Amino acid sequence: MRVGGIVLHVSRASRVCLVVAAVASVTVAATGCSFAGAGDDVVRVYTARHYDLESAFEQFSADTGVSVEFLYGTDAELRERIQAEGEDTLADVYLTVDAGNLAAAAAEGLFRPTRSDVLDRAVPRALRDPQDRWFGLAERARTIVYDPARVDPSDLSTYEDLADPKWDGRLCLRGATETYTQSLVASLIARNGYADTKRVVAGWVDDAEIFSNDVDLLKNIASGDCEVGIANHYYLAQLLDEDPDFPVKIFWADQQTAGVHINVSGAGVTAAADNPDLARQLLEWLATDGQQAFTAGNFEYPVNAEAQPVPLIEGFGDFKADRLHAAELADRNADAIRLMAETGYE
User: Fold this and answer.
1) In order of start, what are the domains of the chain with their CATH numbers?
2) Is the pLDDT confidence value at 65 over 60?
3) Which alpha helices (H) appear in the chain, and where do they start and end?
């Protein structure tokens, strides 16, 4: 069921229903149901991550006996909903993509610190909030992709090199309003400083055709409109899963310098959670026993070193990852947006 852009799902194991009524734009109030109390074995998740979650949640319920109710929506919608609900929020967990969105929720006071030895062991320090308010649960690499029929991989090297005039008319990029683009630019600012990054991004803008999403970008490379681009690895994996002969390959950027830009899908326990202990249990399961179920459906890399990626992305090969702390991406997000505006990147 969709209400005001938010899609509601109730796990099969749960007998609790969620009914919502839209108020104004996305301010939403619960109504019309008898809600179980904090002692019931139900954890409620508001999620902006739209990738095969139901099977993971059903496996969690089968393993633990705890039911999961979850709502889909955009990041902005769900954060506004949690704020509007305040102490009466239905959400025990807020789950989303991109460190910038997680940090925004933390800055707005939507998370509570969660102390967990399990999460400390499972989630690398660079992929979780320094105050333990949110935790990365899956890694996503944003790297260079190319047409092997027209690009020699020996001509590829770094994100910065794509600003070279040799790529003029050959480069595809995702739009500046997308969080993935903003986080990549934020990482370059952290590494190279504002002035040098501005020169790089200005070079990209001179060279590139801009797309609203990575799938269109990749398909345009495959069709011959572009030759090289930057995309999240799992979008290419999805297309290769549908068609093993899809004519685009991956190139791991910056292997002689800082490494490939890494971002996360992640989650935290909400400040007003009715069931914080069950919420913590869900996060711990997603970071350990549930890593395969959580990451496999979207071809993401596990954050837990003991879990294995699915064979398709294992086939992409090993790579050096940039271990810039995810929180730094959020700290520099505003600078990234301003820089792109100054260069005319739209």
Assistant:
1) 2-139+265-308 (3.40.190.10), 140-261+314-343 (3.40.190.10)
2) yes
3) 53-64, 75-85, 99-107, 117-122, 179-192, 194-207, 214-223, 233-242, 276-287, 291-296, 311-314, 326-331, 333-343
Distances 41 to 15, 16, 224 between C-alpha atoms, Å: 11, 11, 53
Q: What is the pLDDT of residues 194-242, one digit of tens each?
A: 999 999 999 999 999 999 999 999 999 999 999 999 999 999 999 999 9
Q: What's the rounded mean pLDDT across residues 7-28?
A: 35
List of long-range contacts for 53-61, beta carbons under 8 Å, 24+ apart? 53/297, 54/9, 54/11, 55/293, 55/297, 56/286, 56/290, 56/293, 56/294, 56/297, 57/11, 58/11, 58/12, 58/13, 59/290, 59/293, 60/282, 60/285, 60/286, 60/290, 60/293, 61/11, 61/13
d(CA 277, CA 269): 9
Say if residues 263 and 231 touch (Cβ distance below 8 Å): no
